[in-house]
Every structure is written in structure tokens, then in C-alpha cells.
Amino acid sequence: MTSIPLRDVLSVLDDFFPQGSAQSWDRVGLVSGDPEQPIRRIHAAVDPTLAVIHEARDAGADLIITHHPLLLRGVHSVATTSAKGAAVTSLVVGDVALYVAHTNADVAEPGVNTALAAACGLTSTEPLTIEEGRPMGRVGDLDEPVSLADFAARLAQALPSAPAGIRVAGPLDGVVRRVALLGGAGDGLIGAAAAAGADVYVTSDLRHHPALEAREEAATTGGTPFLVDAGHWATESLWLGEMLQRLGESLEAAGHDVVGLETHVSTICTDPWSFTVGARPDLGDPQ
């Protein structure tokens, strides 16, 4: 079976997602594994949860590539009495390497946000804003204007299904042409979306007060941007398949035999919500 040294896989990944392009607080790169170990099967997921790690081990994966870090904050024990400790132990005992591309994958082109832009129907975009010298989010125009209801429905079809679905703030017949977006938690950039002239801002994890205040402010300035909370896991999952395809192509271009190299995107939805009850879509936009 084909095997490629992990160091060669890391070289390609670090070229795709330079660690220096990650935000200063982030923790990216190789988390577990030996650069000399052979890689035959690669698993990709948004989150390095225990379920994802077990899925990868059961599939015989040698490497897991995730978006979110396993060890973002200080950890003082890796005993299996904690979820983090059990995850680290499972990786080490299973001889599975873990590589993280987080905010460096957010700003990459192609990367997390360009994949989300494509799901929104955008073919050409530019950075939404700049933070720490790095482009954050994307903004661009649809080929033709659509209603907010149709835009949200099309986006729902393009995204993987999650229990919490998509939340929308705005009138069903609101007109959408200019779209701003940020995969993952993004209520901190609502102002940037408004400044960019966006008709709608697609992101996730929108909190009550920032979202409500933004909609009230929009009511005094033309009603936009409308807000679409499409879920953290869903908005950050789309880039994984494209990344694995590019990885294989780059390894082949570097002279590696990739015929037997296996890649797989996790089928596990790591959205923390399980189900919703009592949604009231008939209430409409508060403004």
C-alpha cells in the first residue's frame, strides 16, 4: 500500500496554510505524530472530538487534519479522566498524527471562507476586512439579485445539514445582491459587513444583543445587512474535501505515488446541538 512520510505531507499543508498567517492567539500545525511516520490514510474533520478520533482510528487513518485546535488553551493533565486527555491518549496509542489548520485556513485562498463564498453563490470575492494584517471573511456580489428567502434556501441546500438549521434575521422578500460572510463565529464583523454595503451577512454563533442591535441600527439606514446564522460546523466544513483533493494533487506533483493514498471527510456532525423544538418562523423579522 502507498505510504508517504508525514514530513512530506506537512510540507504541502504548511504551504497551503502558512502557520505565520494564523492569528497570534491561535495554535496550529502538528499536534501529535512523528514526522517520519508513514501516512496511508488521511481523515479530515472540523473538530478533533473523541468520536472523530475513534472514527478515524476505526478506519485505519494515520493522520487527522482538523480545523479547530485540540489544545488551544492551557492543559495541565492528559490523563484519560478528561476529554482532552482521552483524545491525546487515543491519538498517541493509535499512532495517529493530528494536524490543525485554523485561522490560517480561514484566510487561505482557497480555504474556509472561499468555500463558504462558493456555497453562497459568489464567483468573485475580496476580503471583508483586515485584522492583524490578515484578510478576514469575504464579500462579493451575486450574478443576479434574489430574495432573502431564496438566498437562505439555496444556502441551506449547499451546506451540510445540521440539527439547528439556519436562522435568518430579515424579511422574506428582502433583496440580496451583495453578500458578506465569515465562517465560524462572526458577530464581531457585523459592522464590517455593513460598511462593505452588504445586503446580507452570513456567519454563525450570532449572540442576542449584537444581532438585535445590528438589526435595529439597520432599520434606520435602509434595513441591511440582513443576518444569516448558518451554524459553526456547517460553515466551516465545506473546505475539507477540496483541501484533501488539492493535497493529493500536490503530493503527486512532488513525485509521490498517491494511487493507494486514501482520504476521507468525517461523516460526524460535530455541531453541539441535537435538536430544536418550537421554532416560530411565522414571527418574521422584528424590524
UniProtKB/TrEMBL annotation:
It comes from the Bacteria. Keywords: Metal-binding. GO terms for cellular component: cytoplasm. A divalent metal cation binds at H67, H68, D106, H232, E236. The keyword Disulfide bond does not apply. One of its GO terms (molecular function) is metal ion binding. SUPFAM superfamilies: NIF3 (NGG1p interacting factor 3)-like (SSF102705). Belongs to the GTP cyclohydrolase I type 2/NIF3 family. NCBIfam families: YbgI_SA1388. Homohexamer. This is GTP cyclohydrolase 1 type 2 homolog. The lineage of its organism: Bacteria, Bacillati, Actinomycetota, Actinomycetes, Micrococcales.
